[in-house]
């Protein structure tokens, strides 16, 4: 009888270290490759877009603010000395705009889709189609976008999707019976956690559905990064929960972009999807000894990934 073995975790030479996206991209030539970065006008997304452009890729910033997108693209183009970046309108809170984006993109080959845009701990609110905002923007909008771009991803021959997830997924599984928080008292942090669990499950489901098309998806926790993501969080909410973030060393956006760049470029991840990555390596299972790291098993469960897939198909169909 062959002995059952656990395959070794996939770790890069950068694993466990704080490195910048530029260091991870060094030596990778992305000339001729195309990439879409959602939320690419600021924060971690801008650094991912900039790094891909510096490495030679042509990058579309898929953004809610046309002005911010145009300014970010111009900044990248000045830095790389060529027309590497452009901006296109996309509001993940309105699935009609997502469909408009994928229609305009058509079947042009797409090598990389970085599903980076996100909101955190928003006050209770709804998307244009009536979904809870964090589930709607972080998960459903990206579900519609990525599935709508499958012809383009398949046309690239070997394409990668990167879901910007979060250690916030530790806080909550997706409630498949009440994903939009209609039957429960809304909790902004648990809703964020559930939306990030949905990102992890999406990476599992998407990789399974489109493996034959040469497309893989992995989820990435970028670390704790100094950006404007916490704009909705009030100090009393932190105090009420007894959280203390004062000892956490925040990374720069250039550092926060590193694992997404590794997920986009690493030869060791070729053909591999459905993983949850952090610190430029495959994360270990979550453990109480290292509570801010690791992956919760419910967020990688293939059966739950399938159930969420079926639910998401129904929800985006309206
Ligand atoms: N900053 C962190 O510490 C941290 C930690 C874990 C995970 N993340 C994840 O990293 C990703 C990037 O976050 P960030 O820290 O750069 O924050 P950020 O707020 O700077 O960037 C988020 C981006 O998403 C865009 N966005 C929001 N709603 C949108 C919508 N409806 N349509 C299109 N774009 C929309 C925003 O315009 C912005 O550009 C998010 O998915 C976040 O959950 C961040």
Describe the protein:
There is one protein chain. By secondary structure, the chain is an alpha/beta fold. The protein has a single domain, classed as 3-Layer(aba) Sandwich (Rossmann fold). Helix 3 links the parallel strand 2 and strand 3. Helix 2 runs parallel beside helix 3, helix 5 runs parallel beside helix 7 and helix 5 packs across helix 11. Nicotinamide-adenine-dinucleotide binds next to helix 2.
Order of strands across the main sheet: 3-2-1-4-5-6-7-8
CATH superfamily: NAD(P)-binding Rossmann-like Domain
Binned strand content: 5-15%
Give a list of the ligands: nicotinamide-adenine-dinucleotide
Q: How many beta-strand runs?
A: 8
Residue-averaged pLDDT, rounded? 96
Net shape? globular
**How many helices?**
11
Largest sheet: 8 strands, mixed
Q: What is the correct CATH architecture?
A: 3-Layer(aba) Sandwich
Radius of gyration: 18 Å
Write the layout of secondary structure elements.
Blueprint: H1 21-25, E1 34-38, H2 43-54, E2 58-63, H3 66-80, E3 85-89, H4 95-105, E4 112-115, H5 133-148, H6 150-155, E5 159-164, H7 188-210, E6 215-221, H8 235-240, H9 253-256, H10 258-265, E7 276-278, E8 281-282, H11 302-317
Parallel strand pairs: 1-2, 1-4, 2-3, 4-5, 5-6, 6-7
Antiparallel strand pairs: 7-8
Helix pairs in contact: 2-3, 4-5, 5-7, 5-11, 7-11
Bound molecules: nicotinamide-adenine-dinucleotide (NAD).
Nicotinamide-adenine-dinucleotide (NAD) is lined by residues 38-39, 41-45, 64, 90-93, 116-120, 137, 164, 166, 221-222, 224-225, 227-229.
């Amino acid at each position: 009888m062959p002995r059952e073995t656990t395959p070794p975790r996939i770790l890069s030479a950068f694993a466990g270290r704080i490195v910048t996206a530029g260091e991870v991209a060094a030596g990778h030539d992305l000339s001729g490759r195309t990439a879409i970065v959602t939320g690419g006008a600021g924060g971690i997304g801008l650094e991912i877009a900039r790094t891909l452009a510096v490495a030679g890729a042509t990058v579309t910033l898929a953004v809610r603010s046309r002005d911010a997108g145009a300014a970010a693209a111009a900044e990248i183009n000045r830095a790389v000395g060529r027309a590497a970046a452009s901006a296109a309108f996309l509001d993940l809170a309105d699935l009609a705009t997502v469909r408009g984006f994928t229609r305009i993109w058509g079947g042009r080959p797409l090598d990389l889709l970085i599903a980076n845009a996100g909101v955190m701990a928003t006050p209770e609110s709804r998307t244009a189609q009536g979904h809870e905002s964090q589930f709607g923007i972080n998960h459903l909008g990206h579900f519609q976008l990525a599935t709508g771009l499958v012809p383009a991803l398949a046309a690239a021959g070997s394409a990668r999707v990167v879901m910007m997830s979060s250690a916030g997924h530790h806080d909550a599984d997706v409630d498949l019976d009440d994903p939009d928080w209609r039957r429960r008292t809304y909790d902004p942090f648990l809703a964020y956690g559930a939306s990030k669990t949905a990102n992890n499950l999406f990476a599992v489901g998407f990789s399974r559905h489109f493996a034959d098309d040469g497309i893989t998806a992995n989820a990435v926790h970028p670390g704790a990064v100094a950006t404007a993501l916490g704009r909705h969080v009030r100090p009393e909410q932190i105090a009420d929960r007894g959280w203390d973030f004062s000892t956490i060393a925040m990374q720069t956006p250039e550092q926060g972009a590193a694992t997404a760049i590794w997920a986009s470029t690493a030869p060791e991840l070729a053909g591999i999807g459905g993983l949850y990555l952090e610190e430029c390596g495959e994360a270990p299972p979550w453990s109480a000894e290292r509570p801010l790291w690791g992956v919760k098993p419910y967020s990688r469960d293939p059966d739950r990934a399938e159930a969420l897939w079926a639910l998401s198909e129904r929800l985006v169909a309206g």
